[in-house]
């Protein structure tokens, strides 16, 4: 991840379990609001109902930084954040295409190895982080 962050000049929040959790939520808030104080003008962060966004620790940290956490119902973030349409929609569409292509390619490879008939159970694995990182760099 460090190499990818340096090479793309981006900040990546991730962990080895490939899931978002309270630790990542705190790191994200510290990255955004770490230099703020309780006397700064208030700012608002729009967050969905994802449980790691709404723990007591998260709410307390945001309050210390004079940051208001505002709940946005699922599916409505785009109404409040035009960036969701401008940036995230094309990113999600490109990523969806990437994922579809990856699954198609991996399925074809697996079928080619097990023809004429599969002799064992098999399953698809997700792409490695480096593969995903290169894809995200290519579409950025």
Automatic annotation (TrEMBL):
Q: Which domain of life is it from?
A: Eukaryota
Q: What is this protein identified as?
A: Unnamed protein product
Organism taxonomic ancestry: Eukaryota, Sar, Stramenopiles, Oomycota, Peronosporomycetes
């Amino acid at each position: 991840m460090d190499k990818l962050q340096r090479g793309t000049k981006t900040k990546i929040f991730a962990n080895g379990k490939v899931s978002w959790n309270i630790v990542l939520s705190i790191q994200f808030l510290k990255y955004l609001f770490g230099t703020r104080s309780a006397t700064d003008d208030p700012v608002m962060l729009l967050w969905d109902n994802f449980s790691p966004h709404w723990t007591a620790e998260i709410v307390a940290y945001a309050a210390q930084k004079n940051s208001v956490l505002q709940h946005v119902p699922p599916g409505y973030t785009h109404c409040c954040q035009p960036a969701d349409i401008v940036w995230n929609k094309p990113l999600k569409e490109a990523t969806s295409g990437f994922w579809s292509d990856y699954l198609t390619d991996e399925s074809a490879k697996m079928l080619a190895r097990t023809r004429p008939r599969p002799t064992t159970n098999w399953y698809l694995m997700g792409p490695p982080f480096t593969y995903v990182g290169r894809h995200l760099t290519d579409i950025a």
